[in-house]
């Protein structure tokens, strides 16, 4: 029994969509089977010091071999939908050329298994696993990668469109571009500011090209297309002009450089001007912004926490060694998760209401929300995770609060179905609502999973 009191979720409609989410590299394993070639994450994991304990996704949750049992597990949670991603190097080895039938067959079976279980499949086409050959050719900073992505997307769409309604193109292009090509803490581990700007533009172009290709190929004309962005909030730490400018810049580089072109067909002028003053620019060609702003039906929102920003460093300087204005993230002073991320549900409401106001007319679904905690399984593998249950409850409540203020949020996917390969953090950080024993591959629903299942049942009125 929970040792803390979790108030019941109220204010969500009976037809609200409930789901759980995963991604290919984080759960599948079978890294070299049935013709799959390496992705940038297979390579990055071998780079000394890149990933905690030099861990990798060779086996992960062995989902590739345990898929039917995992679908039964998903069904037992009572969700409507399952969000998974397709591994590009599995279905199109090397990232170009013909489809690999053996690789694509896995997703074919997964979709059939989900439909037989009454679960709606939500496909993410790209969750960070770029084929290594395309990175060797230049990666996302290279314009050609956008066209390769559109080709790949249409191969997957052709095979699954008869049974899958919802296709989202990219998961969190900010992470691919910024963490992968500028900060270097994600694959491919490059550190070049201009490369990251080029990656942003080519990711967005790939999204637009893929959306256009899929929509043109849709035999029903009724598919749902979308993109998932990671977003937080960027409040000024204090009400000084310096801090307000820092928050504006953080919001511009984190949120507006994605949503403004997607929705309005233009990059934000303040950011474009500041980039120009340091000699940088997005590599826009004629017609690109029309492609990028091609209409789509759903915005996937991944939220973990909100932040404050200061325009001074800890010594009070307003500019760094390169002469750039300081943009310093300050974590709100609240309890933290095992990732050391602050727990900020009220900022989730703030974000969703702001998205509704600044980008109106765009239905939203929460495609990821969740938390890692230092779980302690009992001898049977059960985890009494009050902390995760409370996190989910407060954030689902935040969604209900945002809806009450007008935000058009249609569903919520918990991250994640099960513990998995948490990128640079390896297996040490556990986001699952189902515990995974990596020695035996045994899955055990945690308290949070049982609470989630019961909450879904109550909201549905069943
Ligand atoms: C998601 O990334 C991923 O889609 C998913 O695969 C992953 O397992 C999950 O979250 C948990 O990490 O401190 O400057 O990085 C979320 C990545 C984390 C990016 C929070 C933005 C805040 C700004 N996000 N981060 S920063």
How would you describe what is shown here?
The chain has 462 residues and is of the alpha/beta class. Helix content is 40%, strand content 14%. It is built from 15 helices and 13 strands. The protein has helices at residues 24-27, 40-45, 63-76, 88-91, 101-116, 132-136, 144-160, 173-183, 193-217, 241-264, 269-277, 288-292, 345-358, 386-404, 447-460; strands at 17-21, 81-85, 120-126, 166-171, 224-230, 234-236, 298-302, 307-310, 328-330, 364-368, 409-415, 434-437, 442-445. An 8-stranded parallel beta barrel has the order 1-2-3-4-5-7-10-11, surrounded by 6 helices. A 3-stranded mixed β-sheet has the order 6-8-9, covered by helices on one side. Helix 3 (63-76) packs parallel to helix 5. The longest helix is centred in the middle third of the chain and has 25 residues, at 193-217. The mean pLDDT is 97. The chain binds ligand GBH. Ligand GBH binds at residues 23, 26, 171-172, 175, 230, 232, 302, 304, 368, 415, 422, 431.
What topology emerges from the helices and strands here?
Blueprint lengths: L16 E5 L2 H4 L12 H6 L17 H14 L4 E5 L2 H4 L9 H16 L3 E7 L5 H5 L7 H17 L5 E6 L1 H11 L9 H25 L6 E7 L3 E3 L4 H24 L4 H9 L10 H5 L5 E5 L4 E4 L17 E3 L14 H14 L5 E5 L17 H19 L4 E7 L18 E4 L4 E4 L1 H14 L2
Helix pairs in contact: 3-5, 7-9, 8-9, 13-14, 14-15
The structure holds ligand GBH.
Query: What class would the helix/strand composition place it in?
Result: alpha/beta
- Can you tell me the overall shape? globular
Using DSSP, what is the number of strands? 13
Radius of gyration, in angstroms, nearest whole number:
21 Å
| Poorly predicted regions | none
The percent range for strand residues is 5-15%
Largest sheet: 8 strands, parallel, barrel
GO molecular function, one term: beta-glucosidase activity
Family: Belongs to the glycosyl hydrolase 1 family.
Keywords: Carbohydrate metabolism, Cellulose degradation, Glycosidase, Hydrolase, Polysaccharide degradation
Active site: 172, 368
